[in-house]
Fold these 3 entries.
Entry 1:
Amino acid sequence: MSEQSAIESRRAWSRSEYTKNDRFSEVLVIALFVVFFGLGLLIQQRASNRLWTYSSREAGIDAAYPAGWLYDDRGDYVVKFSDPKERPFNTQFIISVIPAGDQASVRTVLDGQTVQRSSDLAAYRVLDVNESTGYFGDTVTMDFAYVDADPNPFVQRLPVVVLGRDILFRDGDRVVIVTYMAQEGTFNESLPTFERFLTSIQY
């Protein structure tokens, strides 16, 4: 048998060995990969939609926040929730309460908030202010922006533009402020999550 004939014979034998069972196995592997990939996405989606409940007896405020987020209630606010997965700036939801007598309007509280932030935050500026009636009754909404830079000189990272939104409404002799802050690139993407958080607040 010539060398050419031997090569052709081996090719024919190889083709005959590639049976229907082999093709079925290949299709089955691909199908299983697609199924498990889709299942993973579904589990991830469900996990991202899970909520945990926070309750402050002192402030009389309850809220449902995204599962896995961290909360801090030791600052000059009722509570701050933050997404540990978001870098370099953690997306944040903050609930604050400001005492306000009959003579103090929501806009007065808002002006005080603006003055304070102007001295604390780099390049702070107000983008828009609107008054409306909604879920919390008469509300004032303020959009703002500032630049977040790490104060540690040994940490090298570029400053981040942060966009924020304050929702202010009166509750008796106090004004409740619900604040949303996120990196400029993810602000709109996370806005539905904030709106769901906002409507979960009970006071």
Entry 2:
Amino acid sequence: MKISLRSVSILALTVVATILALPGTASAATTDGYDVSYPQCGTSLPRDHAFGVVGVNGGLSTRGNPCLASQLTWALGSSGVAGSQPRAQLYLNTANPGELLGQVTTWPKAGATPYGVCDGTNSQACSWQYGWERAQNSVTSFFVPAARTAAVDGRPSSYTWWLDVETMNTWQSGSSAALARNLATLEGMTTFLTSQGGRVGIYSTGQQWAQIVGSVPLGSTLVGRDSWLAGATSRSGAQAACRKAPLAPGGRVTLGQYVQSGLDHDLSCV
């Protein structure tokens, strides 16, 4: 069965979240966190969270999460008992649709990049520029207005930003050159976020990462980035994920995700 990672049963989530929200039924304190995004709009979120990871996008990097402001407030209300994890963290959807240029209105036409000048073609340079622009748009168009609405810290430097890398989004495929273009997109996103002072990590499974990116060369800006590993269905599975190799060389596995009862739970590995 394909692991859909962010795709949850909205009905199951609503039932479970409502139970968690009933007066007098809050669960005992936990050191685990939860990650939420647009599928959880309109539902009652767990109250026993040690930290929260909130999706900035609405499923695609070009869309915003309409509940971002309220979910940011929820994350910052975490107990903080997992001392190694910030109370509020963020994640961004990622993709590289360069093989579908005729259908992509957001593909860049120009830009100076570490891979040369982007000329609007399906190249490493334009892939990098695409990543930069998508991260910039997510921060300035979606995150900053939501932070202002929620009256929370709107500085990108105050957060860890996870790059959500999944096969369900559009990626280039079929050759080592295609994987290199995918890598360039993630490097562009990373470079923008770090230019704003943000801390950047990678969310994926080993299998999906291998399919989308493959190996990460030592000169890449992804070297040293921490990993948040998905795919487990139990807490013990997430604990096992904590002992796996990171997605990028030089990094650490700092979070393990497991899905139970329609909720994305997150276990701190550090």
Entry 3:
Amino acid sequence: MDRRRSTQLIDALYGMDLRAPDWTPFLHLVASAFRSHVVTVQIHDRAHPHGQLTMAVGLSPRLLALHASLCCDHPWFERGASRLLLEGIVDDRGLMPESELRATRYYAEFMQEAGIGHGMAMLMHAQGREDLALLTVNRDWETGHYNEPEIELARSLLPHLCNAYALQQRLGWLHHESRNFYAALDQLTDGVLLLNARGQLKYGNATAQQMEADRLFSRRTDGRLCLNWPADEQLLQRTLPQLCASQASRPFVLPMHGHDGTLAGTIKFCPAGMVAGTQWSEFDIRVIAFVKSVAPGNAVSLRSGLQDQWGFTTAEAQLAQWMMQGMSLAQAAERGGVTINTMRTHLRSLFDKTQTRRQAELVRLLLRLSHT
């Protein structure tokens, strides 16, 4: 066996992007290694029991189209299927007399025009006779049957073919599931962002794209997420690296304010590294963020909602809203025209009614559970 040929074929096989592979360069290498002029990938399933060519080199478009109507008259697979399932590799030696083959319609209308006299099949995937995938290597009568070094080369290649095909099927399934997932995200009315380990925006659903266009948030020149209000941005830059780095991090809710300091929405960050990698085939994604906007002019309805939901007084609801917007207690006192001690009294009442103990805990609870 030619070890150099074997290494070249295996390197080319694993060098393909198996998520969306282009088999053509590899098939051309196979053709060269086996002195073949027609190499195909053929699928046998319930819909195509006699085989469907999914990829091929060396066949004209007309012959490719013709194969679908002639494959039911293909006698080779019926004779060689049992050996193929048992051995993994079968060539045409001894399968049927040449005179019998030349008398078939399949030979007369397909093989003869393609210049095919001899063939060899390698079984890449099998789950019974009704679910097979083959690599077939074909050449003319003059080149003759495959010799022992060529059969040995095929044996060395076969396990790698099986691995690569299985990986392609798995990654192809993940890619299909990923497309379905993103299509579902586009149906959501809330914005959804996917961020990588550097905090860069890698994906935004249709709602999130509109929110970005409306300047609810933005992105830096390096692609990282950026918030409008300085206090929000500082908290984001402190917190996001921890979320991106750890799979065990808890979800984190952050208020988003406009340039004038009014509450514009909330954004909830959830670690998603393992799920993104195993379920969506997005191994670079670390965080999924859910963005919810607050309609302009909803300040009064927000205060009313806080009063109805938590039993706050009007003054307490106003303080709660200001804190949700990122104000400190001193800023809220100045904004409300009262003393800091008055605001502390309201804050203690908010703690009692929400059963919280710290201001940060209170704000997180309000952002998570209030009707915003």
